[in-house]
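Input record, target 12 of the design panel.
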């Protein structure tokens, strides 16, 4: 018996509470998505006649366990039957491998994507910094000043950043980003430049790969499978931008927003180092198998 158990509340009832807290309420035809402690009390009283149980006792039991049933996160199960086949080469590129062979000194790997529909929200009352008496204050209401798209490309092994703000996305906007990179040294005279992208409409499919290869003979477009943005290193940079630049969002105009984004890009490129990427093909295969068995 656990140290915190008592004769009035034996281990079997502890286990019952944990099972009930972790299951979906719909299994018992309950009209809510998650149990509260009071919901669990009602179910136990109705189904098990445990009149001595209280919401405080249930909270104490659940709080001591490793499983926290009140926490949850969303996830997307890989639906592409060739998920491993498509994702594997990208993970190899991060390790400077291509088709089983090491990359040469004149081979470069670029991770690129678009952060779309970034709004400039001008607060109706000026924001106030934190002081000894209160937290920083940002007015809840705002005026929309428009939105822009931030396109960025990251040289994953050298941590060179390239980016531009555009009024809308599309092949033309993405093409300008590619040109910003491919017209510069060392990429313009490199042996191969691998571009890792998702399946967005700006660069989707073999046609986009062929068009870019025709314009830049040393460019190789590598598509991730659908629902694999978490394997694209540029998304790590975008998450940093979201935290450090866009939260909270308080910009008087889209030009001010663009100026801040590009200024941070320059700052980050000077101070950051390449991401330490250790996730391999083998790790992906193991995780995919766990997801497949759990589905």
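The sequence produced for target 12 reads:
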């Amino acid at each position: 018996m656990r140290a915190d158990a008592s004769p009035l509340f034996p281990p079997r009832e502890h286990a019952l509470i944990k099972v009930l807290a972790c299951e979906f309420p719909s299994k018992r035809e309950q009209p809510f998505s998650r149990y509260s402690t009071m919901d669990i009390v009602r179910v136990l009283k109705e189904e098990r006649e445990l009149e001595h149980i209280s919401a405080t006792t249930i909270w104490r039991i659940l709080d001591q366990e490793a499983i926290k049933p009140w926490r949850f996160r969303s996830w997307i199960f890989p639906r592409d039957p060739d998920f491993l086949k498509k994702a594997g080469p990208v993970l190899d590129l991060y390790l400077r491998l291509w088709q089983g062979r090491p990359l040469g000194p004149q081979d470069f790997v670029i991770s690129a994507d678009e952060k779309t529909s970034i709004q400039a929200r001008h607060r109706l009352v000026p924001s106030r910094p934190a002081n000894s008496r209160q937290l920083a204050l940002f007015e809840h209401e705002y005026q929309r000043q428009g939105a822009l798209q931030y396109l960025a490309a990251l040289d994953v092994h050298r941590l060179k950043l390239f980016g531009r703000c555009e009024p809308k996305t599309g092949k033309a906007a993405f093409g300008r980003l590619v040109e910003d990179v491919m017209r510069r040294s060392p990429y313009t005279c490199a042996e191969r430049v691998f571009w890792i992208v998702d399946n967005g409409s700006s660069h989707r499919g073999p046609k986009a790969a062929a068009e870019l290869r025709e314009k830049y003979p040393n460019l190789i477009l590598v598509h991730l499978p659908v629902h694999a943005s978490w394997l694209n290193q540029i998304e790590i940079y975008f998450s940093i931008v979201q935290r450090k630049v866009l939260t909270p969002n308080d910009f008087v105009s889209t030009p001010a927003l663009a100026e801040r984004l590009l200024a941070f890009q320059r700052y980050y490129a000077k101070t950051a180092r390449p991401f330490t990427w250790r996730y391999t093909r083998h790790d992906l295969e193991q995780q995919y198998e766990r997801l497949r068995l759990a589905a």
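The two ends are 35 Å apart (CA to CA).
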